Amino acid sequence: ARVRGYGARVVVDYHDPEWPARVRDASPGGRGVAAAVNAAPGGAATALQAVASDGRLATITGDPPPPERGVEVTDVYVRADGARLAALVETLAHGRLSLHVAATRPLAQAATALQDAVAGRASGASVLTLQQSPS
């Protein structure tokens, strides 16, 4: 329901082993989508199956599959960038970007929050809070 709320017409579950075929079936002419983004560890090669010939696939998982059928494959390296983060915060503050927060945790639980995100158990962003020292 959340993804449909963002405007998705077709929603598939990447846990379903047949999801690439479902994506192709839902695309015009059954060719596949023009572009896809993969964030599931080990899922880039599977995501490639949903992309139309001469399409594009970007992955942030460090395991890009070799290009095939003219599909351009890009391995996106995510790095810390304070200026970009500040710009995103400003965009969020002005309401031009929305963020679904699934959990708020103390900084001491950062490792658990990261494990949940990597394992796909997080249904949105995790916010880490810093405890204020007494004045």
Mind explaining what this structure looks like?
By secondary structure, the protein is an alpha/beta fold. It is 29% helix and 22% strand. The protein contains 5 helices and 5 strands. It has helices spanning 2-5, 19-26, 44-48, 82-93, 110-119; strands at residues 33-38, 51-59, 72-75, 101-106, 125-129. The strands form 2 sheets. A 3-stranded parallel sheet has the order 1-2-3. Strands 4-5 form a two-stranded parallel ribbon. β1 (33-38), α3 (44-48) and β2 (51-59) form a beta-alpha-beta unit. The longest helix has 12 residues, at 82-93. The mean pLDDT is 89.
What is the straight-line distance between the termini? 44 Å
What's the average pLDDT? Answer: 89
β-sheet strand percentage = 15-25%
Run of helices and strands: HHEHEEHEHE
Record the strand order, biggest sheet: 1-2-3
Total strands: the figure is 5
